[in-house]
Write a structure and sequence with these properties.
- This protein is mainly α.
- Helix 1 packs antiparallel against helix 2.
- The protein is elongated and about 85 Å long.
């Protein structure tokens, strides 16, 4: 069974903003300057593909010549691939 309970102690409040002021942030009708689109240097995609390709090449060399006996080439290749991916996310 539901019983309606009246709120006690709460009085009805008036307006928060004075009458006649615009609602919202007050910035309606304000003209803004057009946003300039940033363009990356033409070297960015070249560096991106060079890092991706160089990383893949280092990983292939690491597996082709296992006699080197070091994982340094593998980690360097992974680092170059990661650098290429990071560069790709910054390209505009």
């Amino acid at each position: 069974m539901l019983v309606a309970v009246a709120r006690q102690g709460k009085s009805k409040q008036g307006r928060v903003t004075p009458k006649g002021t615009p609602s919202g942030s007050g910035r309606s009708g304000v003209s803004r300057e057009p946003v300039k689109v940033k363009e990356s240097s033409p070297l960015v995609p070249i560096a991106m593909f060079a890092m991706l390709g160089g990383g893949i090449l280092l990983i292939f060399v690491n597996y082709l010549f296992e006699s080197l006996g070091s994982n340094a080439l593998l980690f360097a290749g992974l680092g170059l691939i990661l650098g290429g991916i990071v560069t790709a996310t910054r390209y505009q």
